[in-house]
Amino acid sequence: MNNALKKPRKIYVTRTVEFNAAHRLYNPDFSDDENRDIYGKCSNTHGHGHNYELEITVSGIVDQATGFLLDMKELKQILEQEIMKRFDHKHLNFDVKELRNAVPSTEMLAVTVWDILTVALQRYINKGITLHEVTIHETRKNSVRYLGE
Amino acid sequence: MNNALKKPRKIYVTRTVEFNAAHRLYNPDFSDDENRDIYGKCSNTHGHGHNYELEITVSGIVDQATGFLLDMKELKQILEQEIMKRFDHKHLNFDVKELRNAVPSTEMLAVTVWDILTVALQRYINKGITLHEVTIHETRKNSVRYLGE
Amino acid sequence: MNNALKKPRKIYVTRTVEFNAAHRLYNPDFSDDENRDIYGKCSNTHGHGHNYELEITVSGIVDQATGFLLDMKELKQILEQEIMKRFDHKHLNFDVKELRNAVPSTEMLAVTVWDILTVALQRYINKGITLHEVTIHETRKNSVRYLGE
Amino acid sequence: MNNALKKPRKIYVTRTVEFNAAHRLYNPDFSDDENRDIYGKCSNTHGHGHNYELEITVSGIVDQATGFLLDMKELKQILEQEIMKRFDHKHLNFDVKELRNAVPSTEMLAVTVWDILTVALQRYINKGITLHEVTIHETRKNSVRYLGE
Amino acid sequence: MNNALKKPRKIYVTRTVEFNAAHRLYNPDFSDDENRDIYGKCSNTHGHGHNYELEITVSGIVDQATGFLLDMKELKQILEQEIMKRFDHKHLNFDVKELRNAVPSTEMLAVTVWDILTVALQRYINKGITLHEVTIHETRKNSVRYLGE
Amino acid sequence: MNNALKKPRKIYVTRTVEFNAAHRLYNPDFSDDENRDIYGKCSNTHGHGHNYELEITVSGIVDQATGFLLDMKELKQILEQEIMKRFDHKHLNFDVKELRNAVPSTEMLAVTVWDILTVALQRYINKGITLHEVTIHETRKNSVRYLGE
Predict the structure, then answer these.
(1) Residue F16 is inside which H or E element, if any?
(2) Mean pLDDT, chain B cut into blocks of 10 residues (149 residues total)
(3) Where does the pLDDT of residue A95 fall: very low under 50, low under 70, confident under 90, or very high at 90 and above?
(4) Does the ipTM surpass 0.90?
(5) If you measure CA to CA, which chain A residue comes closest to E2?
(6) Are D51 and E22 in contact (CB < 8 Å)?
(7) Paired strand residues for F53
(8) How many CB atoms lie within 10 A of CB E19?
(9) In this predicted model, what pLDDT tens digit does every residue of F84-114 receive, in sequence order?
(10) CA dihedral (F142, F145, F146, F149) positive or negative
(11) Is B89 in the active site?
(12) Which of C149, D23, D51, F9 has the fewest CB atoms inside 10 Å of its own CB, making it the most exposed?
């Protein structure tokens, strides 16, 4: 192999998944007027929905032997188990226990996904691989990014 | 003007709009088992949702003086009034009277949009402008097209 | 249900799948010079590759009870079995028996996919559901469409 | 070769090109008030601009020997010569003689591209290859299609 | 609410807007030859144009009560007032006073947008919300990013 | 010119290129079983392929006179010479000497592109312009980012 390639290199790998969910922006601690004022049409009683596109980025040093940061098959399984099963074809206000009593805004969703994946990815910490970024596109026009800060 | 441009020309004009809605695939005439069997995770009790992307195509002869098939500002108003107000940030099973008692699949949604717009575009019939096609992308992978047949 | 929705409606449903494959444009009946002249860099010895995006469109009358043209879970299984298993992560010149002795151009690929799916979808003929169109995007700039003509 | 592949097959091949141009919607035969009324902000004096995305579709019978409908290198040269040189980095109202005295709407542009390419592609007529469709996306939301009718 | 969600979290929220404008790359301090040499076809006399896609990113701590970083309705109004009204359907060389005497390259445009929005977003400073990034896509192939450095 | 625009501004300019290549994930130091276990279908004997989309980002201070970070015509030539000639329509395992004896994963490809461009862009160092980031999208779902760390 090219000797230069043997130097340790820090790489960011991003996997994109999409789930389809309903949500309603509504805070029971606010009056109905406050909810309408703050959330507008996003607080309609029965909710609305989105095709949420998530970009999950992990980072660490490339493994010289495999050429991989990590086994993508494993990452896909984790995202299937932790993200798709939890959020896909669900109503975020009713069906996701991690969001219970929270307003399921894209901001809160990004933070929640971060918290869930930080735990699920702990098995990689001894290899120096960590979660770097969670980006969620709610629509083509609105997205939110969280980096664990 | 270039004389060739004066010949009558049949043009198809497409306007794309996006709305965000929840839906649940569920037919009360079926048993719970049948619903689960036919609709799977799409029949979850509280529904899920999508960013629906609609492509509305109208066709007719270009107006030589304006260079337009029709006034796009008018078409935008019609789509705002008839489509966005009716479907955007709504739960299709509860909030849309045209879909009441129907299974709000993308197929039924496309047909419903066609029926609504056929009426709304009647003012253009004497100019020879008619609705040609309704395409709805439910996700990046699934879409449905209806041409009034 | 809205009575208008009970009229028979002809719908086109499109499912998109993507596979990643290598190919080499090369006809052994041509001389090396002819191959270079006709296929240019596309005839490089070891081949190159693409993310092929396929849009498979079927059409027929919507089922009033389910709201579906056909069971999308079934269509997904057919595409998994007939398209993904056959073409994904393959070298089209070596690994696909249907393309043996053919130049694996996007045109030939579209025709081949049509022929394969026409057979696989025969079970739907008695319901009046037929394959309508196969579109393959080889790159963002080049695509090919076949309608069985 | 698979014998089925030897049957004549009618294929549609689409090539996408993008050009960046300015235009102003304005008809000198109309009063200033009429222009403002019809074209709104699109009639601003100095013009505005777009990334125009063109999809050019030709159709005919696949050549069994090459696997191609036509030599894509040739089609690329024609589009470079006839479309890119004429329209790219130009102001459609000033720099394109085919549009002189016409309102450079997307409709008129599509018709003009059709007329230009019909002439440029005449060399293919004896092979049964003809221009099938010109689609122009002016923005992500507006597009126009012309099929020579 | 999940207690973990109560920790302060720094979030980046991105809103995307698109405007259609003409521009000409030309510096009157350069000779005609220098302009042609530096800007090539981008210096054509009457200008050309683009669909400019802007991604505006603001950052700060999520408001626990609303689940929002900031009221998106307000941000949309600011972008409508400060960006769309100023740049949409305009010729950047003639119609935008902030760009007068500047070469309206994408780089200068990004810096100008940053300067405008920094002022417009000052009302959020006491909430710790600041402009983080301005990205402008001029075409699908060229983009520019400015972070206020 | 607006005086504010005269301050030094650090800009990030991104150019996107796409190449079509085949590759096979396979390490001759591993047994056949290990290769299958680690790389799965990605280790199929004849390889498969992708439309690789590269985003190359350079950064530095905008030149006040030209409005540019650097001459995009030059950057395009460098990418044509160093990236497209080397990788486009190639089989990464056979045709690219920089990847010889390396596993041509997207991670290794990103690092290799970085090393090649760092050398090619040395002519800009005295102007303070440096390579900032290489991002490669292998598919719509998988991408890798390298920043020279």
Answers:
(1) strand F10-23
(2) 81 98 96 94 96 98 95 96 98 96 96 98 96 98 98
(3) very high
(4) yes
(5) A98
(6) no
(7) F18, F137
(8) 20
(9) 999 999 999 999 999 998 999 999 999 999 9
(10) negative
(11) yes
(12) C149
Measured between alpha carbons, how far is F132 from A68 in angstroms, rounded to an integer?
A: 22
Average pLDDT for D106-114: 98
Give the pLDDT confidence of F9-22 residue by residue, as tens digits. 999 999 999 999 99
Best mutation target among B25, B105, B116, B136 (most C Cβ atoms within 10 Å) is B105
| Per-residue pLDDT band at A6 (split at 50, 70, 90) | confident
Cα E99–Cα E101–Cα E102 angle in degrees, nearest 5: 55
The CA-CA-CA angle for residues C10, C12, C13, to 5°, reads: 135
How many contacts, defined by CB atoms under 8 Å, are there between A and F? 74
The strand ranges marked E within B24-129 are 48-61, 90-91
Residues of chain F whose C-beta is under 8 A from some C-beta in E? 1-2, 4-5, 9-17, 57, 62, 65-69, 71-73
Cα angle for residues A140, A142, A146 (degrees, 5° grid):
120
Closest CA to B9 of D27, D129, D143, D112: D112
Rounded CA gap, E133 and E54, in Å?
10
Q: Which of C13, C57, C65 sits opposite B27 (nearest CB)?
A: C65
Q: What is the pTM assigned to this prediction?
A: 0.97
Q: Which residue on chain B is closest to D109 by alpha carbon?
A: B67
